[in-house]
Amino acid sequence: MRRFFLIFIPYIWLLALFLVPFLIVFKISLSDIALAIPPYVPVIEWSDGWAGFKNFLSQLDLENFVWLTQDDLYWKAYLSSLKIAAVSTVLTLMVGYPIAYSMAQAPNEWRPTLMMLVILPFWTSFLIRVYSWMGILGKEGFLNQFLLWTGMISEPLQIMNTPTAVYIGIVYTYLPFMILPIYSALEKLDASLLEAAEDLGCSRLSAFWLVTIPLSKNGIIAGSFLVFIPALGEFVIPSLLGGSGTLMIGKVLWEEFFSNRDWPVASAVAVVLLLLLIIPIILFQKNEQKSREMDQ
Amino acid sequence: MTQTVFAPWEDPGEKPLIQFKNVTKRFGSFTAIDNLTQDIYEREFFALLGPSGCGKTTMMRMLAGFEEVTEGQILLAGQDMARVPPNERAVNMMFQSYALFPHLSVWENIAFGLKRKKMPKSELDARVDEMLRLTRLERFARRKPHQISGGQRQRVALARSLARAPKLLLLDEPLGALDKKLRQDTQFELMDIQEKTGTTFVIVTHDQEESMTVASRVAVMDEGQIIQVATPDKIYEEPASLYVADFIGDVNIIEGIATKSGEDGYKINWSEGKEPFQAKTPRTLSEGQKAYIAIRPEKIAVSQDKPDSALNSIKGKIVDIAYLGNMSTYHVEIPGGLTIKAQTANTRRLSRRSFTWEDEVWLSWTLTAGSVLER
Ligand SMILES: Nc1ncnc2c1ncn2[C@@H]1O[C@H](COP(=O)(O)OP(=O)(O)OP(=O)(O)O)[C@@H](O)[C@H]1O
Ligand SMILES: [Mg+2]
C-alpha cells in the first residue's frame, strides 16, 4: 500500500499539473475563434447530454495547425527561437563550465560561499534584473559610457534591441541552471582519476579532455536542457531586450493570446512548441537507455 | 652451477636507480616523511612495510610525481626529479584506491596508457590482450569498472599500470583484495614479470608474508622513517629492533639484564632467582644493561620431559592452543607470569595430538634461536 502511494503521488502530480492542462490547451487548439467568453467555439453543452458531447467532438478540427504552416511568421519564429536557444545554450555552457570548474577546484571552505553567490541573483525579481540590463546596455547605458570613457569606441554601440542583447540576457539569466549541475558533477569527480591519467602519460590538458569532460557529461547535458528548454519559449527577455527585430515564438504566442485574443491559434502554437521540446528529449532518453543497456 | 646472488646494494660500484636524499615531506606542520635517505637498485623488488599512516603511500606519490618534496632530493637514474611532471616520468603507479576510469570499459582502461604512447593499433590490441590474460580478466574486457568485483577491479588497476612496461612500477597494496590463492598466483606472476622485463618494483603491502615472498629487500617503516632495510630472511631472523621483530611475524619478547658469558654470548637475567637464558649475538652489550631476547614461536620446542641437551629450557603450563591447520601454537605460561608462544608442525592428526590444555610441558631453544636486542 505504501509503495503504491509512493509511486502514484508523482503520477498524480503529473496528471493534475501537466497532463490535464495540456489536454485543455490541446482541446482549445482544435477549436475556432469566436467573439464570446471564452473566446472560442465549440464548448461542451452538458445539458444536452451525450448528444451535446458528440456535437462538440464533430466541430473540432486541425484548422489552426494547418494555419501555422501557411503563415510563415510561425515557422520563422520557431526557427529563430531554436537558433537563439541553441546559441545561448552553447554560450551559457562556455561561460558556465569554467565557473563551475573553478568552484569545484576551490578550497572546501569556500564552496558554500561561492554557491551562495551563484544563486544570489534569484533573490531579486527576474523582471528587475532584466530591466537593469536595459540600463546597462542602452545607448546611454553604463557599458557604452564606460567604453567611451576608456576610448575603446568613439560612437555608442547599438546593443539594445539586437539579438546580442537577447543573448546577453539569456546567458545571464540562465547561467545558474548551467553552473549548478556541472558543479555537482565536477565536485564528485575523484581527483585521483586525473592523477592516474597523468601517470599514464596524459598532459594536464589531455587529462581534462579524456577524464574531466566525459565524467561531467551528465552535468553538461542536464545544464543544457535546463537552459535550452526555458530559453526556447522565452518571452520576457526578447520583449524587453530584443525589441521588434528579434522574432521568438514566446513573443508570438503572447501576442496571439493577448493582442489578437485568438486562443485557438495560440494554443496550437503552444502545442507545437511542446512537441518540439518533447520529441528530442524522448529521443535522447531512448538513446541513454540504450547505451546503459549496452553496458550491462 | 653457481648462482650469483642478486644483491646490488652490497656492490659499491653499482648505481642506484632511485635515490632518496634526506627527503622530508610535510603536510602543513605534519611531517609525513622524516629525513629519509634510501637507495633502490635496478631490478629490485623493494617492499615497503609499516603500520597505517606511516608514509608508504606518500613515498610512492613522491616517486610518481604527485607530491612535491619539502626538503631533500629524489633522483631517478641520477636525474633530479623535482621539476619532472608525472606524465614525463618512466614510472607507473597502481593506486591504492585503484582510480579506474568509470566511464571506460576494462579494456579501454588498460589501453589508456598505451594510447598515449601512439602505439600501432595491432600492437596495442595484442598488448591489452596479453595484460587481460595475465590478470585473468578476458571475460570482463567489455564491462565497466562498476560492473566487476573488488578483486577484479584491483586486477584491472594492476594490468593498467603494467601495460606500459615502465622502468619503475609502484604498486600500492596491489593484492590486498584478492583471495589467498589468487594472491599467491599473482605474486608469482609479478615476480615472473619482473624477471622477464627487468622492471624495478616498489611495492607497499600490509601483508608481511607477501613481502617475504616477493621482495628482494624489505623496508620496515614507522612514522615517516625507515627503521630497517634488509633481505626478507635477514629482517625475519635478525631484526634490528623490537619494533621490527614485533612487526614482522609472531615473536616472544623476554626482557632482562645482560651479563657476558663466554666468547660472544650473554646471559639474560629475566627474573630474580630464575636460571638466566643464554643467547649468542654479534652485538656487544655493556655489562648489566637492559636487553631483550626475541624468539620466533617456531624456534621453541615443546616436549614432555626436560631435554638434556638444550641450554635454554623452562617448564610451564599450556593455557591456550591455537590450531592453524598445518601448525599449532601453544601458549605456555611460565613462572613469573610470562606467556610464551611455541609453534609446532602438525604432522599427526588432531585426535592423536600429544598435548592439551593444562598440561605441564618443557619449552627449550638453542643459543642462536633468538636475537638479542637493545631496544
Ligand atoms: N594530502 C595530505 N594532507 C595532509 N596529510 C596527509 C596528506 N596525505 C597524507 N597525509 C598524512 O601523512 C601520513 C602518511 O600518509 P600515507 O598515505 O603515506 O600513509 P600510508 O603509510 O600509505 O598508510 P596506509 O597503510 O593506511 O595506506 C598520514 O598520517 C596521513 O594522514
Ligand atoms: Mg597508503
TrEMBL record, chain A:
Superkingdom assignment: Bacteria
Record membrane topology: Multi-pass membrane protein
InterPro entries tied to this protein: MetI-like (IPR000515), MetI-like_sf (IPR035906)
Transmembrane segments: 12-37, 77-101, 113-134, 165-186, 207-232, 263-284
PROSITE patterns reported for this sequence: ABC_TM1
Pfam families in UniProt: BPD_transp_1
Signal peptide, first to last residue: none
Subcellular compartments: Cell membrane
Predominant location category: membrane
CDD domains: TM_PBP2 (cd06261)
Ranges of residues in domain ABC transmembrane type-1: 78-284
UniProt KW keywords: Cell membrane, Membrane, Transmembrane, Transmembrane helix, Transport
BP GO terms, sorted: transmembrane transport
Any one annotated GO CC term: plasma membrane
Similarity comment text for this entry: Belongs to the binding-protein-dependent transport system permease family. CysTW subfamily.
Name assigned to this protein: Putrescine transport system permease protein PotH
Automatic annotation (TrEMBL), chain B:
A molecular function (GO) term: ATP binding
Source superkingdom: Bacteria
EC numbers on record: 7.6.2.11
Root EC class: translocase
Organism of provenance: Thalassovita gelatinovora
Membrane-traversing stretches: none
Subunit structure: The complex is composed of two ATP-binding proteins (PotA), two transmembrane proteins (PotB and PotC) and a solute-binding protein (PotD).
UniProt keyword annotations, A-Z: ATP-binding, Cell inner membrane, Cell membrane, Hydrolase, Membrane, Nucleotide-binding, Translocase, Transport
Protein name: Spermidine/putrescine import ATP-binding protein PotA
All copies of domain ABC transporter, residue ranges: 18-248
Similarity comment: family membership: Belongs to the ABC transporter superfamily. Spermidine/putrescine importer (TC 3.A.1.11.1) family.
Function as written in the Swiss-Prot or TrEMBL entry: Part of the ABC transporter complex PotABCD involved in spermidine/putrescine import. Responsible for energy coupling to the transport system.
Record-linked NCBIfam families: potA
PROSITE patterns: ABC_TRANSPORTER_1 (PS00211), ABC_TRANSPORTER_2 (PS50893)
Catalytic activity, reaction form: ATP + H2O + polyamine-[polyamine-binding protein]Side 1 = ADP + phosphate + polyamineSide 2 + [polyamine-binding protein]Side 1
